[in-house]
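Lecture 7, part 2: worked example. A protein chain together with LLP.
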Amino acid sequence: MYRDRLSLLPDTVALRPDKNGAPSLHIGDRDLNQLAAEWGTPLYIYDQRTIDNAVQAYQDALSRHYPGPAGITYAGKASLNLAMARLMAAHGLLLDCTGVGEMHIARTAGVPPAQILLHGVNKSQADLRAGLVQAGTLVVDNLPELARIAQLAQARVSAPALWLRVRPGYAVDTHQFRQTGQHDSKFGMDADECVDAVAYCQRNELRVTGLHFHQGSHFHAAEQVLPALDMVCALIGRLQQELDWWPQVLSPGGGWGIAYHEADLPHQSIEFYVATVAAALAKKLSPHSRPLPRLQPEPGRSLVARAGVAIYRVGTVKHAGGRRWLLLDGGMADNIRPALYQARYSALPVTDPLGRPPVSENAWLAGPYCESGDLLIEDLPLPEIEAGELLAVPVSGAYQLMMASNYNGALRPAVVMLRDGVAQLVQRRETVDDLLLRDIV
Ligand code: LLP
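Predicted complex, written out as structure tokens:
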């Protein structure tokens, strides 16, 4: 339903009069009209309180439902900049970095190595060398990588802890580009390889402390983790029996989904997901009478997506072939997800979002880029919208800017973090000069 769109927005959403007295969307106690006027559009804003609440939801659920120790890793690939790295580190989360680039952001933000975890399916020597110094944990994807780590670690007095990435043989139900757990996926090791890896670590005095699996991203049914948990618990039994090895940490990856569109509501809670995983793990491992491993989920999207809102300005309203086109100042360059995964978003006018009923002709929202695939939202009920109006696209906080490009010379948008009425610019908009930074003149 149209009104439900409001609940897709961050926790602090409110409708308050703008300077002309019209009800307008406020987030983090700030008027979106004013933010757009100050920083231009497209603009990405993040509501810090919504992120804090999501972290708290994971923490509460873990302490309520898991009888053993627990922690959270934030999958930085969902949204990473200095401010986000600092925020997650301040919450005490580990930060999952993919490669030397994300580790550089994390270290520049001051995240201590003990809180950095290095992931990657084909880590370069540069990734591994940096990881040995900058990360407290390396997640090993494959046996050749383990041998390379052993060689690089030889000269070092101390080395990061190692977790093994298990390929459970089960993906979750999501777009196939986001599935990772299936038996023929490029990620991780099967059970036999994991046994070989632990034996290798024991022979080579490498500190292997954990197991990790990740079945895919953006799934909605918590029980889809259970077959993979069964597989991993059977592997733990085997490792105990054959090698007398027991994990200190078990990370069931991330992937918990969210609602992007009012049609996705209601969505199962973070608590429900965590409770399902925690209960199954505790039940399966308790008979071993060994200490329960630390349960360490690794969410990205479910921590940050709903905190983010993209604000666009409608430049042109056009009618073509029976379609109402709203042409925006952003699109596939800042959000490739509709083109890549057919992701379905929703949108609301910033001014008077609920007072005007949708008209009979749905809207097609597209960007300014030279591609017919630059289509942000198809066939969306919206009121009459005029050129110059602002539209807010909820649930824009995960993966959009991380996959943004300079296609057609697009300038990546500014990012603003909001907290209790204070708006802090955390990333400036790119300038045309930024487009030349790598060119040799
Ligand atoms: N852990 C690992 C090892 C991962 O590969 C990922 C995501 C996560 C955790 C976090 O997953 P999340 O909780 O955010 O679903 N570009 C796609 C998503 C790709 C996710 C890649 N890995 C999208 O825009 O939907």
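The chain has a mean pLDDT of 97. The first strand starts at residue 14 and ends at 17. Keep this in mind for problem set question 3.
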